[in-house]
Amino acid sequence: MSRAVVSLLLALALAACSSGPPTPAWQMSARSGLDAAALAWLEGRTATEAVEFTRARAAIARTGRLDLLARAELHRCALRTATLVFEPCAGFEALAADATPEDAAYARYLANRLRPGDAERLPAAHRAALAAADPVGALRGVPDPVTQLVAAGAALQRGQASPALVQLAVDTASAQGWARPLLAWLLVQQRAAQAAGDTASAERLQRRIDAVAPRGR
Questions:
Q1: Please, is 91 exposed, middle or buried when counting C-beta atoms within 10 Å of its C-beta (0-12, 13-18, 19+)?
Q2: Which residues form the signal peptide (predicted)?
């Protein structure tokens, strides 16, 4: 998780080098806050996520780097896509004028509003998933579970989520113990089973849903 957050959010600007000068305190605060916020969101702890993200954002703001603030907001929105919360990325949009072209393209990818030339600016895994007729083949070998879930969510939003891709997302979230994306993707499976009249599968999926988030909790 830490490698994924650092590479997507802060890139080389936050990379610490053990043989170089001490890492600035803001970098350590930002990294720990972003990691904690991401994990809290994926585990379904919404209030904790908000607190940790605010802490990380404040650390980044001390640098005056608007591009890094935009990237932090973008990563937060990517996690929403991973959990099938499709909403405007307001935090990024407020900083879009100062975002890098790559981050602007990624934001449009998450919103399913790609422009010509955007695909070439995406990270490799997302570019491969976007180019595939069925993204599941491109995502099976991706080692980072967050990337898998974000790409799967983006595929669902653009109408390219096959049953195999949905199952991959379920398996990925389940293996990590991430309740929020697991529930979201199980509900996708359950709706498909109900639409197909597969009562047995729908009931089995409900038992899994209840195990993750018992009714009345």
A1: middle
A2: 1-18
Helix axes 179-195, 199-212, angle to 10 degrees: 160
E strands, 64-210, are none
Q: How open is the CA angle 91-37-209, to the nearest 5 degrees?
A: 105
Q: Give the Cβ contact number of residue 77 at 10 Å.
A: 23
Angstrom distance (rounded) from CA 48 to CA 111: 25
Strand, helix or coil for residue 94: coil
At residue 60, the 3 state secondary structure works out as helix
Q: Dump pLDDT digits (tens) for 73-92.
A: 999 999 999 999 999 999 99
Torsion angles phi and psi, residue 6, rounded to 5: -65, -45
Place of tokens 């879009």: 96
Query: Which are the contacts of 141, defined by CB distance < 8 A and separation ≥ 6?
Result: none
Q: DSSP assignment, residue 85?
A: -
- Measured CA to CA, the distance from residue 131 to residue 212 in angstroms comes to 34
Residue 17 has pLDDT above 80, yes or no: no
**Is the four-CA dihedral 178, 184, 188, 193 of positive or negative sign?**
positive
Token pair for residue 30? 């930002």
User: What does the chain come to in residues?
Assistant: 217
In whole angstroms, how far apart are CA 85 and each of 115, 161, 167?
22, 15, 18
